[in-house]
Design a protein that fits this description.
about 60% helix, mainly alpha, elongated, Helicase, Ruva Protein, domain 3
C-alpha cells in the first residue's frame, strides 16, 4: 500500500517537475514578458542536457540562457530577435525545431527522398525474387538425374 501511494505521488509530481527548473529569482514581474520568456525557452535546446529545453533543464548553462532570454525581452527585443541572438551565439543546434530553409532544406528533403528510393529498390528486388523460374530443359534434367545417381 505504501509503494502504491509513493508511486501515485511520484506520478502526479512528474508534470510539475519541468516547471521547477526555472528559479524564483529568474521570474519576471511582468506576466506577459514571463509568458513570452517561457514560450521562447520551451523551444530552445539545452546544450548540456541535449533533448531537453532550457525551460526544463537544471543545468547552469540553461539557467544562463534563460536569463539572457529574459534580459533581451526586458530590453524590448521581439521573440524573433531573442531567438536570433541566441542562435548567433550558440548555433542552430539550440533550436528544438530546426529551420526548414537554406542548407537545412537539403536535410529535410533528403530523408523522404531516400525513403522513396529505398522503397523502389525493395520493390524491384521483390519482383525479381517473386518471378517464376524457368523449368529445366530436358538436357538439364538428364544431367541432374546423372549427378544424383552418383
Amino acid at each position: 500500500m505504501r509503494a502504491l501511494f509513493l508511486a501515485l505521488i511520484l506520478a502526479l509530481s512528474l508534470p510539475i517537475a519541468p516547471a521547477l527548473a526555472v528559479q524564483p529569482d529568474e521570474v519576471l514581474s511582468d506576466p506577459n514578458l514571463e509568458r513570452r520568456a517561457r514560450s521562447i525557452s520551451a523551444d530552445l535546446r539545452c546544450v548540456v542536457c541535449r533533448n531537453e529545453s532550457i525551460d526544463e533543464s537544471n543545468a547552469e548553462l540553461a539557467r544562463d540562457m534563460r536569463l539572457i532570454v529574459r534580459e533581451r525581452l526586458v530590453e524590448g527585443d521581439t521573440d524573433a530577435q531573442v531567438v536570433s541572438f541566441l542562435v548567433d551565439r550558440y548555433g542552430e543546434y539550440i533550436l528544438l525545431r530546426p529551420r526548414t530553409d537554406g542548407v537545412n532544406l537539403i536535410l529535410w528533403v533528403s530523408a523522404p527522398l531516400l525513403f522513396v528510393v529505398a522503397l523502389g529498390i525493395a520493390g524491384v528486388a521483390l519482383r525479381r525474387r517473386a518471378a517464376p523460374e524457368k523449368p529445366l530443359s530436358p538436357e538439364e534434367e538428364a544431367r541432374l538425374r546423372e549427378i544424383l545417381r552418383d
